[in-house]
Design the sequence.
């Protein structure tokens, strides 16, 4: 009878142990402070001490802003960077990492590259003004570390930034 | 017996766009299209028969996942179980076709589940109700009780492929970035899940920022970018052991946007030196590298053609991001995107005939597809921020990330047909971004 079709049994044993160590990280604590890119965080020293990173951050000015998609330095940005040059010239015990950032209006990989352009625009300016290149490093966070979270130009303008983070000690 | 049919999976416009996709398959079931809108094929999946004591719950769950898979495609519509006239109480008994015809179930899936000594066996058959025949042959899968969802996906893949003539995509996994925390303190970790969001497993901790994981073609390895060392660097991770290592550790440079070549031996990625970002290739075994682009502009997001001979990537050498195709060995690139706005994150389809991309235009983001020469561009989605398409293994569906607007904005994964229909959110335990769809297992 047609309906009682012979069942052709095709056995396929599945390899069902996909991951030998599932959820290994489930209970791992999240330590966001361990990550850099949190510009505006606590930096050491007193604002009243002109040789402190805190003074650099708050009085000299640790960041410059960029126009949409741009990495060229505005006159205001150059003025800020001139102050950074003076500070770095005076405080030769410190090095700096320049972080480049983008706003959220863009795709992830492109924003990483764009942030690198911005960080390097700052780095090249500092080097041109006499800061030894071996005191400076750069890193881009693309759109991963916004400081302002609204989805409007007022926030975007502050997120399109390059931040000079002062790091203690002479390193290679 | 002989019937006329065409298992059309997509709209007429799309059929023209991709010759051969809207294939006519000699089979008794059909999925009708009226004016570009699919009329989903009605089908029934009664609870599978429990053939051993204690298999009752599995038998029900497996049938439900099969139904979720099929209905979730938008190509099938389940006839609710309340409407069923016949009950399937024995896998071997004759099917009462009249009872299924009466409720207009054109396809019927019957199955049985037994469990013994930690081993589950799932049997199933697919029936063409109106022809009164079995479609294909009965099949069975065996596995562990924990693997029941995979067995259900395997059944659904068989049903899908017998009715559409194309391979399925249900028994597949997606690697992605799981996100938590507010926008300005977002924690990210790598995770892998079934295509439907089930069985999420975390592959890294969230102490270091991780971005854009990409499966190898065999699904055994994942490339991703991690800030573990302070700089974004390309890492490779073995999924089985969850062991990872830095692939590109050169000092003072950033590496990101990696993707495997189809052979699994070469990796293509972006390298940033100073302000310039170019595309490089690395032989994984030897570590030998080769620079593929050398423009002063940003070149990133490379993706191989399935035959490994070409690479599509994005570049802003013209002033804004556009898509280009070059030989896998580098050299002259040909621009393929010419529409309004900017184009990014191109991904070659597994069939080789199309490229999916992200497009920004007039303040909106879109996921779109175009032919590999840039013609017949079609946008599938529109929102505040859609980004990063990845193809289902059969090239019919695209998954991507959608970020919502504003201070409370968060990211979720969505799927959409390449016809632009059936936009659906994939449920994940936390926010999710950067999906990469692995192979059919």
Sequence:
């Amino acid at each position: 009878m047609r309906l009682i079709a012979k069942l052709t049994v095709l056995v396929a044993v599945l390899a069902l142990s996909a991951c030998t160590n599932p959820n290994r990280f489930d209970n791992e604590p999240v330590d966001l402070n361990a990550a850099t890119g949190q510009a505006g965080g606590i930096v050491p020293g007193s604002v009243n001490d002109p040789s402190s990173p805190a003074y650099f951050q708050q009085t000299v000015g640790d960041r410059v802003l960029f126009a949409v998609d741009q990495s060229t330095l505005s006159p205001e940005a150059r003025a800020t960077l001139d102050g950074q040059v003076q500070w770095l010239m005076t405080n030769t015990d410190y090095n700096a990492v320049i972080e480049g950032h983008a706003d959220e209006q863009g795709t992830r990989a492109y924003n990483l590259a764009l942030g690198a352009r911005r960080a390097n625009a700052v780095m090249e300016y500092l080097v041109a003004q006499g800061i030894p290149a071996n005191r400076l490093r750069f890193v881009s966070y693309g759109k991963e570390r916004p400081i302002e979270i609204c989805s409007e130009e007022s926030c975007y303008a502050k997120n399109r930034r390059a931040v000079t983070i002062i790091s203690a000690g002479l390193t290679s | 017996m002989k019937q006329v049919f065409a298992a059309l999976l997509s709209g007429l416009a799309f059929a023209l766009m991709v010759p051969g996709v809207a294939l006519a398959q000699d089979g008794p079931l059909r999925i009708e299209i009226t004016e570009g809108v699919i009329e989903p094929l009605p089908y029934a999946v009664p609870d599978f028969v429990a053939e051993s004591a204690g298999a009752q719950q599995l038998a029900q769950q497996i049938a439900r996942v099969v139904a979720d898979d099929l209905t979730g495609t938008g190509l099938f519509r389940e006839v609710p179980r309340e409407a069923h006239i016949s009950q399937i109480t024995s896998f071997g008994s004759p099917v009462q076709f009249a009872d299924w015809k009466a409720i207009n179930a054109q396809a019927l899936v019957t199955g049985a589940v037994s469990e013994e000594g930690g081993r589950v066996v799932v049997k199933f058959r697919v029936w063409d109700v109106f022809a009164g025949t079995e479609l294909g042959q009965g099949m069975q899968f065996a596995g562990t009780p924990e693997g029941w969802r995979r067995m259900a996906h395997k059944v659904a893949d068989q049903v899908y492929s017998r009715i559409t003539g194309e391979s399925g995509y249900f028994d597949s996994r997606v690697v992605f970035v799981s996100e938590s925390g507010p926008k300005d303190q977002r924690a990210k970790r790598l995770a892998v899940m079934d295509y439907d969001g089930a069985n999420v497993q975390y592959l890294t901790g969230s102490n270091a920022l991780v971005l854009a994981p990409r499966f190898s073609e065999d699904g055994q390895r994942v490339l991703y970018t991690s800030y573990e060392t302070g700089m974004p660097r390309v890492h490779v991770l073995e999924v089985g052991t969850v062991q990872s290592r830095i692939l590109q550790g050169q000092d003072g440079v950033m590496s990101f946007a990696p993707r495997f070549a189809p052979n699994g031996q070469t990796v293509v990625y972006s390298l940033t030196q100073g302000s310039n970002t170019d595309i490089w290739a690395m032989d994984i075994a030897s570590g030998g590298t080769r620079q593929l682009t050398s423009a002063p502009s940003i070149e990133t997001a490379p993706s191989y053609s399935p035959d490994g001979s070409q690479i599509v990537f994005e570049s802003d050498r013209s002033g804004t991001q556009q898509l280009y195709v070059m030989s896998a060995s580098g050299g002259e690139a040909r621009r393929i995107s010419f529409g309004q706005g900017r184009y990014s994150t191109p991904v070659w389809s597994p069939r080789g005939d199309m490229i999916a991309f992200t497009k920004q235009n007039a303040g909106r983001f879109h996921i779109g597809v175009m032919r590999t020469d840039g013609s017949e561009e079609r946008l599938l989605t529109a929102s505040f921020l859609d980004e990063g398409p990845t193809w289902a293994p059969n090239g019919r569906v695209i998954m991507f990330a959608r970020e919502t607007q504003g201070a409370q904005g968060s990211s979720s994964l969505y799927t959409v047909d390449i016809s632009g229909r059936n936009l659906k959110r994939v449920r994940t335990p936390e926010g999710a971004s950067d999906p990469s769809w692995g192979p059919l297992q």
